[in-house]
Amino acid sequence: MTQQQADFNQGLIDFLQASPSPAHAVNTMVRELEAAGFSELNESEAWQLQPGQGYWLVRGGRSIIAFRLGEQPVFDAGVRMIGAHTDSPCLKVKPNAELLHQGYLQLGVEVYGGVLMHPWFDRDLSLAGQIYFRNEAGKLQTALIDVKKPIAVIPSLAIHLNREANKNSEINAQLHLPPVLGLDASADTDANGKPNPSLVLREWLATWLRKAGHNVAEVIDYDLCFYDTQPPALVGLEQEFISSARLDNLLSCYTGLQALLSSKQPAATSLLVCNDHEEVGSSSATGAEGPFLESVLRRLSGDEQEYQRMMARSLLISADNAHAIHPNYADKHDENHGPKINAGPVIKVNANQRYATSSETSALFRHFCDLAKVPYQHFVVRSDMGCGSTIGPVAATKLGVRVVDVGAPQWSMHSIRETAGTKDAWYLGQALQAFFCEWDGD
Q1: How does DSSP classify residue 321?
Q2: For residue range 60-119, what is the model confidence (pLDDT) as tens digits?
Q3: What domains are there in the chain, each with its CATH number?
């Protein structure tokens, strides 16, 4: 691993650690964009854009579009786009979450996305996300919260009480996943004889916000998820692997952001979109199936004819991690399409359009890899297995734009802790930079 690769991976580790929720990921990206001189745009205001300048805008606090306007008109040069997603499968806290069972305080959770449930047991869990509160003046405000310290655990059932656990252990999300936060203190009362308010989640959150310097009268609502407090780490005898939560798909968000920041004076407009809600189908105002990206592109193009000309010259790289071949389950892959870790980004192909890659867009991405002097691989699911999907087909259908679906190979997708290669994020980043900075459009 070269020093450049080591520095890149440390940046990725810092980004993962700072981004326990989609809202935190967006906030972390905004800080980097601001430091690089990008300016904020507001969807409700008129835009006055200057070639060569970078801009960003956020929708819902959890989806972001950032772009650098090129020197050439968009209807002549098109837009070079990278798409990723900010969300990861997790356990989200329900609105009326408090549960008191057998003398323990728990919180009810809802499974978000296709969670691999077993690895969530016996982890040191914390909470992060968005909170909406009313201040003392009666104004509704929002803030991010990251508790950071371990405050909960989902204990496994001892094998003595479930002798078939290693053969067949079904998890009921309603009954078996509520994390334990502590002992039931409901017998404690305040000076007025009322139950101790520390048991009420909203009051606990309000206290946390006040300690963080916010003027909080009442917490109104929240979007909170549990996460594993174990930090990202380099793993392996030669540190060949990076192990972390949320590699799917914050790795792609980070590599796409670094590629955009590298495009200093582009001839064509370079754009990064990181949507929320990919893990649950993308059908939302902030998801890839919503109008966020299309509305920005239409504002960049002007009238309808210029928009259509722009889209015909544009390309979107949908970056979302791919399934690396597992040494213990190699039969789960097609024998000629099993991507290996640290062997380069993966071009994802599916004849039934679960991925939007075509032979044209696959050839283009190979060209970007050749320009960057990095290897590449292919993934095609076994013909007797179902195939996952990502934002690529959604964007292709909605926008009519050319799309290639790619991603860094990883193990343990949708687990609470995933593993990728220390070279692959770098390889992907180099290919994306070549797309933005070196490709002449032909």
Answers
A1: -
A2: 999 999 999 999 999 999 999 999 999 999 999 999 999 988 889 999 999 999 999 999
A3: 3-88+245-437 (3.40.630.10), 90-228 (2.30.250.10)
